[in-house]
Structure formats: C-alpha cells, structure tokens
From TrEMBL:
<feature type="domain" description="Histidine kinase">
    <location>
        <begin position="271"/>
        <end position="488"/>
    </location>
</feature>
<keyword id="KW-0472">Membrane</keyword>
<dbReference type="InterPro" id="IPR003594">
    <property type="entry name" value="HATPase_dom"/>
</dbReference>
<dbReference type="InterPro" id="IPR003661">
    <property type="entry name" value="HisK_dim/P_dom"/>
</dbReference>
<keyword id="KW-0902">Two-component regulatory system</keyword>
<dbReference type="InterPro" id="IPR004358">
    <property type="entry name" value="Sig_transdc_His_kin-like_C"/>
</dbReference>
<dbReference type="GO" id="GO:0005886">
    <property type="term" value="C:plasma membrane"/>
</dbReference>
<dbReference type="Pfam" id="PF00512">
    <property type="entry name" value="HisKA"/>
</dbReference>
<feature type="transmembrane region" description="Helical">
    <location>
        <begin position="193"/>
        <end position="214"/>
    </location>
</feature>
<dbReference type="GO" id="GO:0000155">
    <property type="term" value="F:phosphorelay sensor kinase activity"/>
</dbReference>
<keyword id="KW-1133">Transmembrane helix</keyword>
<dbReference type="GO" id="GO:0016036">
    <property type="term" value="P:cellular response to phosphate starvation"/>
</dbReference>
<dbReference type="Pfam" id="PF02518">
    <property type="entry name" value="HATPase_c"/>
</dbReference>
<dbReference type="GO" id="GO:0004721">
    <property type="term" value="F:phosphoprotein phosphatase activity"/>
</dbReference>
<keyword id="KW-0812">Transmembrane</keyword>
<feature type="transmembrane region" description="Helical">
    <location>
        <begin position="33"/>
        <end position="53"/>
    </location>
</feature>
<keyword id="KW-0597">Phosphoprotein</keyword>
Length: 493
C-alpha cells in the first residue's frame, strides 16, 4: 500500500507501512537537470579516465614486448653465427644476455633443439630440460608472447634459426612489469585528481545550465501569476524554446477562451437579471394600476388579469428554460439512454406543433428516408427537435414552409430543419447558440422567445457526442443540421 502526504518541506511517502521522506527540492526541474548532468559528467569522466589508463597499460606492455622481441631477434642471429647452442661458450654473448636481463629486470633462457637449457642468466636451471606450450610453439617457428597481469610479467619466446633452415633453438625471456605498473599507478593518481577536478567543474556548469534551462519556465510561471492577479501583460511571450513557444501559444488561446467565458458569464448574469426583472416590472405596473383604480370596471380587471397571466407564463417559461440549461450544464449529467424510434419521435413532436404552424399558415413537411433507431435520451432529443422546429415556425413568413428530414448511415443519424423564414445575418451566426442571444430582439419578445432554446438544443446534442450546425442567408431562410451517433458511447472518467 502506497500513501503520500505533503508537508511544507517535502513529501512523506508511506510504502507498506515504511515512511520515506522525499525533500521538496527534489521535485524541482532545475535540481533534476543539475543532478542528471552532474551524474553524466562524473560517469563520463570516470569511464574516460579508466579507458585511457587501460589503453596506456596495454600500450606500454605492447611496446615493451616489441622491444624484447627485437633484442631477442638480434641475439638469435649472433647465437647462430657463434654456434653458441652447441658450445655454450661466448663471452660476448654471455655479456649481452646479462645486459638484456639487467636492462629489463628479467630472466633469459637459451634452449637448444633438444629442449635443454644452455644458458640461464639466473644460473639456476642450466642443463635441465624444459617443455611448455610456448616452447613447443617456438620450435614450430612462431614467436609467442604473453602477459600475466596478475603476476606482472611478460614472457617472450623467439626461435633461433638461420633463414629457412629448421629451428636450432630458442630464447625465452621473462620480464617483470613492476616499473610499468609504477608508471601506471602514478598516472592513476593524476587521473583521479583530474577526474575530481572535472567533476567539480561539471557540477558547477550543470548547475548553471539547469538554471538557464529553467529560467524561461520561471518567467512563464511569474507571468501567469501576475495575469491571475490581474496585473502584468495580458499574454505570454516566451519563445526561448520551441516548447515554451508552443506552451505560450496554447496558454494564450486558453486565456482568450477564459476571457470570453468570463465575459459570457457576466453577460449571462446580466441577461438573466434583465429577463427575470422585465416580467416582474410589468406585473408590478399592472398590479399598481389596479390598486390605483379601486372602482375599475370588471372588464378592466379581466384585461389586467389576462396581462398578468401572460407575464407570469413568460416568467415561468424563462425559469423552466433556465432549469433545463442548469440540468444540461451539470458535469456528468445523467442521460436516460434507451433505444428509441427516432421517426416516431419526430412525427409526434411535429403533430404537437402543427397547430402553431397552422396559425401562420406554415406548411410543415416531414421527409424520412429510412427507419431510424438510435440510443438516445428521448426527453433531451425531444428538446432539440422542439426548439429547432418551433423557432423555424415562429421566425418564418406568412404562408411559408418548414421542411424536416431524417436520414442515417451506419454510424450516425442526421436531422435537418429548413425554413423559408427571415434568415440570420452572417455576423450573428457565430452567436446564436449563446444564452439569451436574439437576432431580432423586438420580434423575439413579441413571439415570447427567451433566447435560451438554441443553447439548450446545442447542449443536448453535445451530451450525445453529436454536432449541430447552421446555414442561413438573410431573407432566404435558415437550415439547421444535427448529427448524432446511433450508438451512445459513455465517456470514461
């Protein structure tokens, strides 16, 4: 079980009952960049120094081996010319063998073709027989050389022969590498000092690089805090990197959206206040007028009470539309999704709206291209259809028409509501789904519109993962198209 709690100085992680304190500064991007770069510099310097030391060690051994092989080759020629392998007597060769042994701090053995040691510079095994892998290889004409790192010595074997003649003997040299190791160890000490110096410089430079890399982010954070506090620049302008430039652009778009939403909220509150206050003002005026006429005729009372009833009905409609909007605005609003016959639903709504169309002699036509069954919330889709068709009737011309069509493919069903009405100016088409927005405010009040119908319709469509669009020309009518999935897919989270 893992549980995290937070304090001012850091985070307390509890894993399986064991508490681990994670300092707050560890979560800093600057600290993490500095640590990563520092670790990279330190590891790189250590690996590089080890590689250089290993290469130097191998190089010195290789050079020493080549030197010994060259000296042995020169001696092998002299051994052949002096017939030293048979007689074992030559002051000159003995001197050179001793010098070779002393110079390289090693042991030199001269072996004849019977594997007998003719000369041993250590005077320990003269006259004895020696057989080893290197000796056998050497008598085959090879020049084996090996390095025992653990015991710290080089062993070189050189055949003694003349031209293409058979091997007559060999020189076997074992040389200590203590002097080479001393040089390597001295170099290692210097390398460690250099590694520490490079690491300190690397950590310092990493801290500077981390600070420089994070500086644009700190400027962005400061700018956002200033913008949230209501002062400073209105937009982010951080283009130090492509990433910060993209973040700035995305934030500026979000900021524009926020300002639009904030302005829309203020406008919505103002509109709600105005729309609710207007009927109340009218009712108060009517009531005051009646109170000022205690002896008013019955007809006046009836007329005023009728007006009061209309204003109450108008207030009730506004409140009901607002309640519908509130329900649709709720996150995760419950949808009563069921498989519905959309054709039957449209026909039922059009039948209910037929008397309204008949008042203005509006021809109401429904065209269905195929039977459509979809997973929808019947009440909310009914709101969509009702609002679109009712608006098409109310904002139409005398003797006009409203054409409703329904079609579907394998994935969506499509509802189209077209009318011969007054149309919508192009500058208003982007705003018609805003709450309380009216294209013709005076005409809207005459027909009892609240300015909330299209907003309700749009919200209901969006809740079904659908889309709604409008096409209109002033004086030539308006067409709304709605696309809704046949199968409702519930969004996770």
């Amino acid at each position: 079980m893992i549980r995290n709690t937070f304090t001012q100085s850091g985070e307390l992680a509890i894993i399986s009952g064991v508490k681990f304190f994670v300092p707050k500064f560890i979560k800093s991007l600057q600290v993490r960049v500095t640590v990563i770069l520092s670790v990279f510099v330190i590891l790189s310097s250590v690996i590089l120094m080890n590689a250089i030391l290993q290469s130097y060690d191998q190089r010195t051994v290789s050079v020493r081996t080549a030197e010994i092989q060259n000296q042995c080759t020169i001696l092998s020629n002299q051994l052949v010319n002096s017939d030293y392998l048979k007689t074992g007597v030559s002051d000159v060769i003995d001197t050179e063998l001793s010098q070779l042994s002393n110079i390289y701090n090693g042991r030199v053995l001269v072996i004849d073709d019977e594997f007998r040691i003719v000369e041993d510079t250590y005077d320990l095994e003269e006259g004895k027989t020696i057989i080893s892998e290197d000796v056998v290889k050497c008598f085959r004409g090879e020049k084996p050389a090996s390095y025992d790192r653990k015991s710290r010595y080089i062993e070189v074997a050189v055949p003694v022969k003349k031209g293409e003649e058979p091997v007559k003997g060999m020189i076997l040299v074992s040389v200590s590498t203590d002097s080479l190791r001393d040089n390597v160890e001295a170099l290692q000490t210097k390398a460690r000092i250099a590694t520490v110096a490079i690491s300190i410089i690397g950590i310092f430079l990493s801290a500077i690089i981390g600070m420089l890399l994070v500086r644009p982010l700190k400027r962005m954070s400061q700018s956002i805090e200033e913008m949230a506090g209501g002062y400073g620049d209105n937009y982010l302008h951080e283009n130090a990197y492509d990433e910060t430039d993209r973040i700035s652009n995305a934030f500026n778009k979000l900021w524009d959206r926020y300002k639009v939403l904030d302005a829309s909220r203020e406008e919505f509150v103002a509109n709600v206040s105005h729309e609710l206050k207007t009927p109340l003002t009218s009712m108060k005026v009517l009531a005051d007028s009646l109170l000022m006429q205690p002896d008013a005729p019955t007809e006046i009372y009836r007329e005023f009470m009728g007006d009061l009833s209309e204003e109450i009905e108008r207030e009730n409609k506004i409140i009901n539309d607002l309640l519908d909007l509130v329900k649709l605005d709720k996150k995760g609003a419950n949808l009563n999704i069921k498989s519905q016959d959309v054709n039957e639903l449209v026909e039922r709504i059009l039948k209910r709206l037929q008397p309204l169309a008949a008042k203005s002699n509006i021809e109401l036509v429904f065209e269905s291209f195929r039977p459509v069954t979809a997973e929808i919330d019947e009440v909310k889709i009914a709101l969509v259809i009702t609002n679109l068709v009712e608006n098409a009737i109310k904002y139409n011309k005398e003797n006009g028409w409203v054409h409703v069509s329904l079609n579907a493919d394998h994935k969506y069903f499509y509802l189209k509501v077209a009318d011969s009405g007054i149309g919508i100016p192009k500058e208003d088409t982007d705003h018609i789904f805003e709450r309380f927005f009216r294209v013709d405010k005076s005409h809207s009040r005459e027909i009892g519109g609240t300015g909330l119908g299209l907003s309700i319709a749009r919200n209901a469509v969006v809740m079904h993962r659908g889309a709604i669009k409008v096409y209109s020309e002033p004086g030539e009518g308006t067409t709304f198209t709605v696309r809704i999935p046949l199968t409702y897919i519930k969004r996770e989270g």
